[in-house]
Design goal:
seven-stranded mixed β-sheet; single chain; alpha/beta; 12 strands; about 425 residues; three-stranded antiparallel β-sheet
C-alpha cells in the first residue's frame, strides 16, 4: 500500500467514524449518577419545542406561541456599542468576577433613576450571564438538603427545578384570578413561614401577567422580618408594564434590602436573549456568599455584553417603554380575537405572556394538544407551571399583532362544537 493509498484509507475510516455515533459496550453507569438527578423535573419548554418540531416536520403551518424568545432586535445604539466593544482589546480578556465596574455602576444608576433605590455597586450587585443563572446561584447559596422554599403558583418551572438540584423542598402558595393572581401571604400558616428559608416571587409574573402592588411587597417584607427568611424577586420583566407606569421593584419597599435579593435581565427590556446578560442585587451579606458560589460554579457574563448592557441601562428607557406599549397592544389584539372564539384571557398588567382559562370540560394538557392538532397553534399547558396552573394555557405575546390575530382566527375557525 502506497503512502497516498494509506492516507486515503485513514481518511475514509475517519469519515465513516464521524458519520456514525460511537457504539459503547452497553455498560450501565446508572449507579454512578447522583441521587438528586432522579428528582429533577423535565423541562416543559424543551418538551414544547419537541412537539412543535414534530408538527413542523409533518408540514403543518404552526404558529408557535409556546416560545418566550423576543421577536425583534435590540435598540440600534446597543448594537453599535456591542460591535465597537468587540473590537476593543480590553474586552479580549476575562472580565472581573463580580462584573465590569461600568456595568455595575449602570445598574446602580438604573435603580436610582427608575426606582428611587440606592445600591452599592461593590457590595450589593453581581453581574450574571442571564437571570436564570442568578436563580440557580441564589438557591445554591441559601438552600441545603430538605430546606423549604416557598413558591407562588403558578410559577416559572426553574424555581422547582433548581430547588430539586440542591434537594430542597417546596411549598406552593396558590393564587387566583379574583385576587389578581397575588397570593394572600398572611393566610399561609405561621409554621410554614417559620420553616421557610426562601420565598421566591416573580413580578411582573410569568405566566399570569400579574404585577405586584406596594402593599403586597410590604406584606412579604414584613413576614420575612418576622419569620427570618430571604425573599428573591425575579424581576426579569422590569419595565414591561401595561398600565402606564413601569412595574415596581421589590427593593423600593422599606426594609426590603435587609431581607431580599432581586434578579434583573437584559433579555426582555432590550431584546437580547441570546446575549445572556443580567444581574443580582440586594442584601450585602447574601451577595457576599452568592459571589463565592458564583466564582466557583458559573461562567462570567461576556465583557462586550456588559458594555452594551451599561449603554441600555444608562439610556432614557424610551425603547423599553415602546416595547411595553407594543406588548400591551398585542395582548389586546389576542384578547379580542380569542373572544370571538368564545375564550377569555385573564387580565394582564405586564410581562410577555397571556393566561387563558380552558373551556369548561377540558383539561389544560388536552386543550393544548387540540390547539396544535386542530388549529396549528402551539401554547404551553398551565400545569407545566406547577399544579396551581392546571386549567389554564399560556400564550406568548412575542409575535406580531397580525400573527396573534391569525392565531385567534384559526382557533375560532377550528372551534366548531368543541366548546
Amino acid at each position: 500500500m502506497t503512502a497516498a493509498t494509506a492516507a486515503q484509507s485513514v481518511a475514509q475510516a475517519a469519515a465513516q467514524s464521524a458519520a456514525q455515533p460511537a457504539q459503547g459496550n452497553g455498560t450501565d453507569l446508572s449507579d454512578l449518577l447522583a441521587d438528586r438527578v432522579a428528582a429533577i423535573p423535565s423541562n416543559p419548554f424543551a418538551q414544547a419545542d419537541a412537539r412543535v418540531a414534530k408538527a413542523l416536520a409533518a408540514g403543518k403551518p404552526v404558529i408557535n406561541l409556546a416560545k418566550g424568545n423576543p421577536d425583534g432586535e435590540p435598540p440600534q445604539f446597543m448594537q453599535d456599542v456591542v460591535a465597537q466593544a468587540a473590537r476593543e482589546s480590553v474586552n479580549f480578556k476575562y472580565s472581573p468576577f463580580d462584573g465590569k465596574p461600568e456595568y455595575l455602576a449602570a445598574i446602580a444608576s438604573w435603580y436610582r433613576t427608575q426606582h428611587g433605590v440606592t445600591i452599592d455597586p461593590k457590595t450589593q450587585l453581581l453581574a450574571v450571564a442571564g437571570a436564570s443563572v442568578g436563580i440557580s446561584e441564589v438557591i445554591q447559596t441559601l438552600i441545603n438538603k430538605d430546606d423549604l422554599v416557598v413558591l407562588v403558583g403558578p410559577y416559572y418551572p426553574q424555581y422547582e427545578g433548581s430547588t430539586a438540584v440542591v434537594q430542597g423542598r417546596i411549598h406552593v402558595v396558590p393564587t387566583d384570578e379574583a385576587h389578581g393572581f397575588l397570593p394572600d401571604l398572611d393566610a399561609v400558616p405561621a409554621a410554614v413561614w417559620d420553616e421557610a428559608k426562601l420565598l421566591i416571587l416573580n413580578y411582573p409574573n410569568n405566566p399570569t401577567g400579574a404585577v405586584a402592588t406596594p402593599e403586597f411587597f410590604a406584606t412579604a417584607v414584613r413576614l420575612a422580618h418576622e419569620h427570618h427568611f430571604v425573599i428573591m424577586n425575579d424581576f426579569a420583566y422590569a419595565g414591561i408594564g401595561f398600565d402606564g407606569e413601569p412595574p415596581i421593584s421589590l427593593l423600593e419597599t422599606p426594609g426590603a434590602i435587609d431581607v431580599s435579593v432581586e434578579l434583573g435581565s437584559l433579555s426582555k427590556m432590550y431584546m437580547v436573549a441570546g446575549w445572556r446578560g443580567g444581574f443580582v442585587s440586594g442584601n450585602a451579606q447574601v451577595l457576599k456568599a452568592l459571589k463565592s458560589v458564583h466564582q466557583q460554579t458559573s461562567i462570567l457574563m461576556s465583557s462586550i455584553v456588559q458594555v452594551a448592557g451599561a449603554a441600555g441601562l444608562n439610556s432614557d428607557q424610551s425603547t423599553v417603554r415602546t416595547l411595553a406599549a407594543r406588548y400591551r397592544d398585542r395582548y389586546h389584539t389576542l384578547r379580542d380575537g380569542l373572544a370571538e372564539a368564545g375564550l377569555r384571557l385573564a387580565p394582564a398588567h405586564g410581562g410577555l405572556f397571556a393566561w387563558l382559562a380552558v373551556p369548561q370540560g377540558w383539561n389544560d394538557e388536552d386543550f393544548a394538544v387540540w390547539l396544535l392538532d386542530q388549529a396549528n397553534v402551539a401554547v404551553i399547558p398551565g400545569s407545566d407551571f406547577g399544579p396551581t396552573g392546571a386549567g389554564y394555557v399560556r400564550f406568548s405575546l412575542l409575535e406580531p399583532a397580525s400573527t396573534l390575530a391569525e392565531a385567534a382566527r384559526r382557533i375560532a375557525q377550528a372551534r366548531g362544537t368543541a366548546w
